[in-house]
Specification:
Elements lengths: L7 H5 L12 H4 L5 H7 L7 H7 L9 H13 L1 H4 L2 H13 L3 H11 L4 H13 L4 H13 L6 H14 L2 H13 L6 H14 L2 H10 L5 H13 L3 H13 L6 H14 L2 H13 L6 H13 L3 H9 L6 H13 L3 H13 L6 H13 L3 H13 L6 H14 L2 H13 L6 H13 L3 H10 L5 H13 L3 H13 L6 H13 L3 H13 L6 H14 L2 H13 L6 H14 L2 H13 L6 H13 L3 H10 L5 H13 L3 H13 L6 H12 L4 H15 L5 H13 L3 H9 L7 H14 L2 H14 L4 H13 L3 H14 L7 E6 L2 E6 L8 H17 L15 H9 L2 H12 L6 E5 L5 H13 L4 E5 L2 E6 L2 E2 L6
Parallel strand pairs: 3-4
Antiparallel strand pairs: 1-2, 1-3, 4-5, 5-6
Length: 931
């Protein structure tokens, strides 16, 4: 106790900190039992004031000065000063009045040598607002004054250094241990390993472990924990194996952490072996280990074994329930997770906010967005207030659902409960408004944020950029720099995406150059954004050019790049390149990606290979709504309505809810097949049975369906009764039907609207001229032609192309003739001669020119699709099918000729005219002559 008196000046000179609420001193710093304290105090032989001092400790001190005064008296009365109860009372009093350094000095002097007192002291110290740094300051001060400490005190000082990452003081303590030649006990060695592991890395900690003379169980356990804390999962697991080889017993914490490592590494076999160890040493009753076992099996995707462990667990606590519920959710078994949740409640285990957040985030991650909102309502009904994590999950679900009104309600809740100051919540709100096209509200939330992180900036910049507001996006980018936040690659990529999807390809390329000028490298997302934008906007050739540049820079494609390239292949009907990309998908394990598989289905359907589309679809295990829609659309392109409705029925059996795109595909299949009754059935039941409100696209399909079936008057009545203003697609469908059935009167009505809605669309004028030509109204044909010339509208060239030996051969009404034209016409004349023997007669009505019949037959021979098919027959060998792409609707004569060609040469012919395919085989067409 000689050291106490010289330090009194140091204690009394310290200024108090902020005062906490008063507490009883003797009951909170419970180091010594009152009975033990009384028994160790000798019978009083001192005057009466001493007796009063001994029994006034239950009374409250009123100020720091009163504590110091009493402390001074006690020091003078040295006969009772060393009472543990006296010292603990003064320590508690100093803590309550904020004199943390004085409390620490007393503790070092009176209690530090005993391990059992440290946790209680640190708990009390932290409760009153003390900073552990002050304990280290006191230790340094005492040490500099020559106070000697034993290894126990130094070990605890090392633990505090570890917690505070005070590397230099920890190194000094280690040096002190070495200089004084202390024989390091296992506790000190563990403290050293813990210190080096946290402050210098696991290599230094492992070195301490290797240099230890005796490796007992505590040291082994600490070595494993040090490695696992630093996420050295494999190293920790290896140490555990070595430990078991030496028959050293692991404690429950080590076992639970090693099981965590097995989960992280996917080491199921090792996890099972540790499970055997648990059973062998009868540790199954330990709830910590049980919970770790459940988590390990879940991380290894083995929910069955996780459930076995859970079912065999007695006295399941809340963490145990949370583990199994989160396991089911993580692996996508949402119904089982909810069932367990209900069982948990019936077992009188009250869920906590972690349970609710697990349900919310899990259902969001697995796409059950509506269920997220339902869980939120149940959570609130149960009396739980959503926290930041809850709100973030719900806002993400609202974003995916497009429920802006619900998002605004959640925003009100956020403001009422003061959560709008949370950075993550505010950023989620900005993102929700951006993705729901409410940029005004997104900007308002953004403006109210005090601490904007780069995610918030990127979200708002992306919103403006993707909506084409490039000036606002650029202004935000500049403002971001002014506020000292450096744009990252995500910032620039959002600008690239916005420019490319708005057909501003040059500006998008300029942004990629800007990325390079800022010292960054465009990544796969940068190039994919550019390629994707080109594919969406119809710049298919440019998409492949940028792919070459991307590969030249050594950047590998990802699944999104592949999907965009497949979209470009579908747009250009490049089957051969599409097949090469399919091979690339197989080599790089992209086939498990549902977006890639869906893009493959779409590509094969639109490139004339429906069989491959069906094969990809059948192999797809987790079919999404988009994949179902792609397959239905594929059948619709070929007019195969029976197959389309079969896929639709299977989709419903799989409990996949159809959307607007599904019904567009179904109605399209019916309009190409002439199945009017079935088309009406699904149109009428869209909203009542499936909750899908018909859009202008659905009405356009119905007009097309009615018109192609010959119900032109009904089609006009249907247009006039539509709940929305008919657009060009609707009137175009009616005009096309009038052209098919030769109804000039209704055609003129439709054309009048089309000329107003699309005055520069040459296709509308061409349709009307064809309609007049069919009725031999040549003056009206000339009138339409003069009108086109006056407006500067020109009909583009008609072209067809066929791919032979990886080379595309184009046949066009404009430009150069094919170099093998002579051989092509020779073969075509030969085919026509053979056809006529079978009953073929040229359909000269298809020629909309006022010329002689003989000349019309010559014009029919020059139709580009005939030339392309003929060249395919010459240059390809059976049984390979011939695939021809045509940019206009096939005429009836070419349709008839193609049927005869497939019969005479025993070849399959696929002909795409615009948006649909004709499959000719053995003299028949898949459209059944209805197109």
């Amino acid at each position: 106790m000689e050291a106490a008196t010289p330090l009194y000046h140091f204690i009394s000179s310290h200024q108090p900190f902020t005062q906490k609420q008063p507490r009883r001193y003797s009951t909170n710093f419970g180091l010594v039992n009152v009975a033990e304290t009384l028994s160790e105090t000798s019978p009083s032989t001192s005057p009466s004031p001493l007796s009063s001092l001994q029994f006034d400790y239950e009374k409250e001190f009123h100020s720091l000065n009163s504590v110091r005064a009493m402390h001074a008296k006690m020091i003078k009365l040295s006969s009772v000063w060393d009472s543990k109860r006296n010292m603990q009372s003064f320590i508690s009093a100093y803590l309550e009045f904020g004199d943390f350094q004085s409390a620490a000095v007393l503790f070092f002097v009176g209690f530090a040598e005993n391990y059992l007192y440290w946790n209680s002291f640190l708990e009390e110290f932290s409760y009153f607002g003390g900073n552990p740094c002050e304990i280290l300051e006191v230790f340094s001060e005492l040490h500099s004054k020559g106070v000697n400490f034993n290894t126990e005190i130094l070990a605890f000082v090392l633990k505090i250094c570890s917690k505070l990452r005070d590397m230099w003081l920890g190194l000094e303590v280690h040096a002190c241990l070495i200089k004084k030649g202390f024989n390091l006990d296992v506790y000190t060695q563990c403290a050293l390993m813990n210190f080096y592991g946290r402050c210098c890395g696991t290599e230094s900690a492992n070195k301490v472990f290797k240099e230890a003379l005796i490796h007992d169980s505590l040291l082994w356990n600490e070595a494993i924990l040090v490695n696992l804390r630093d996420e050295k999962w494999a190293e920790g697991l290896q140490l555990f194996c070595e430990m078991q080889a030496l028959l050293v017993k692991a404690n429950s914490l080590t076992i639970s952490k090693v099981l965590q490592a097995c989960g992280k590494l996917g080491a199921l076999d090792e996890g099972k072996q540790i499970h055997g160890y648990v059973i062998r040493y009868d540790l199954e009753s330990n709830i910590l280990i049980r919970t770790a076992l459940i988590n390990m099996y879940v991380k290894n995707d083995n929910i069955k074994l996780a459930r076995v462990v859970f079912d065999l667990t007695d006295n399941r606590n809340l963490p145990c329930w949370n583990s199994i519920i989160s396991g089911y959710i993580a692996l996508g078994y949402l119904d089982d997770a909810l069932e367990l949740f209900h069982e948990m409640i019936t077992s009188n285990i009250k869920p906590d906010i972690i349970t609710w957040n697990c349900l919310l985030s899990g259902h969001f991650l697995h796409g059950s967005y509506r269920e997220v909102l339902a869980i939120l309502r149940r959570m609130q009904s149960a009396g739980y207030q959503p926290n930041r994590n809850s709100i973030t999950s719900v806002l993400q679900a609202v974003t995916e659902l497009g429920y802006l009104s619900n998002g605004k309600e959640i925003h009100c809740h956020v403001r009422r409960n003061g959560l709008d100051y949370d950075l993550h919540v505010a950023t989620s709100l900005v993102d929700m408004y951006v993705k729901n096209d409410d940029l005004t509200s997104a900007q308002a939330v953004f403006d109210c944020m005090t601490n904007r992180n780069i995610c918030a900036w990127n979200s708002l910049i992306s919103g403006y950029s993707c909506k084409g507001h490039f000036e606002k996006a650029s202004n935000l980018l500049n403002q971001m720099k002014e506020e000292g936040i450096k744009p990252d690659i995500v910032t620039y990529n959002s600008m690239v995406s916005g420019y490319s999807t708005s057909s501003c390809i040059k500006e998008a390329l300029g942004m990629i150059r800007r990325i390079k000028s800022c010292g960054m490298s465009p990544n796969v997302v940068s190039w994919t954004s550019l390629i994707s934008g080109c594919s969406q906007q119809g710049y298919f050739r440019e998409a492949f050019e940028f792919l070459i540049q991307m590969q030249d820079e050594g950047i590998k494609v990802n699944s999104v790049t592949i999907s965009s390239l497949l979209q470009a292949c579908a747009g250009l009907s490049l089957l051969y390149i599409g097949k090469e990309i399919h091979c690339l998908c197989i080599r790089n394990d992209f086939m498990d990606d549902v977006y890639v598989s869906t893009a493959l289905i779409d590509m094969y359907s639109k490139c004339g290979n429906l069989e491959n589309a069906k094969k990809v679809f059948q192999k797809l295990e987790d079919k999404t709504l988009a994949s179902w829609n792609s397959m239905i659309t594929g059948f619709a392109i070929y007019g195969l309505s029976t197959e389309a409705i079969s896929v639709f029925d299977k989709m419903r059996q799989a409990h996949v809810q159809p959307d607007a795109i599904t019904f567009i595909a179904l109605l399209s299949s019916y309009k190409h097949s002439g199945l009017l009754d079935k088309g009406w059935k699904y149109f009428d039941h869209m909203k009542t049975d499936f909750g899908v409100t018909p859009t202008i696209e659905h009405y356009s399909c119905m007009v097309d369906l009615l018109g192609r079936a010959g119900y032109l008057d009904e089609a006009l009545d249907f247009i006039q009764s539509m709940p929305m203003e008919p657009n060009a697609a609707v009137w175009g469908a009616l005009l096309t039907s009038c052209r098919i059935h030769g109804n000039v009167e209704l055609g003129e009505i439709a054309a009048e609207y089309l000329f107003k809605l699309e005055p520069y669309n040459a296709a509308n004028y061409a349709l009307m001229m064809n309609l007049y030509a069919l009725s031999n109204r040549w003056k009206d044909v000339d009138r339409i032609r003069d009108k086109m010339e006056a407006m500067g509208v020109k009909i583009g060239p008609v072209w067809s192309w066929v791919q032979v030996n990886q080379r595309i051969h184009i046949f066009s009404t404009a430009g150069k003739t094919h170099q093998e034209e002579g051989e092509i016409y020779f073969e075509l004349y030969k085919l026509i001669s053979e056809m006529k023997k079978l009953g073929y007669a040229p359909d000269t009505k298809c020629v909309c020119q006022n010329i002689a019949e003989v000349e019309k037959e010559k014009v029919l021979l020059a139709h580009t699709e005939k030339l392309a098919i003929t060249y395919g027959l010459i240059r390809t060998t059976s049984p390979a099918p011939i695939r021809v792409i045509n940019n206009t609707r096939i005429c009836s004569d070419c349709h008839t000729v193609a049927k005869y060609m497939s019969l005479l040469r025993r070849r399959e012919i696929f002909l795409k005219d615009g948006v649909r395919f004709h499959h000719f085989k053995d003299g028949k067409c898949s459209c059944c002559d209805f197109w």
